[in-house]
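I'll show a sample.
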Amino acid sequence: MKWWKLLGLAGVVGVAATGAVVVRAERRRQAYTPDEIRDRLHARIAEAEPEPVEPATP
């Protein structure tokens, strides 16, 4: 087999694998209800906010 045939075959396999990953991620994303998404976003924001720091007393 020529090298260009192998390169073409590898390209086709790469495109198919990328498409499968995208479809899988899209299915996972669409499985959430809007309420679940909202709850998850609120939880992530709460985790990202730093806790208030009390000033040190001299």
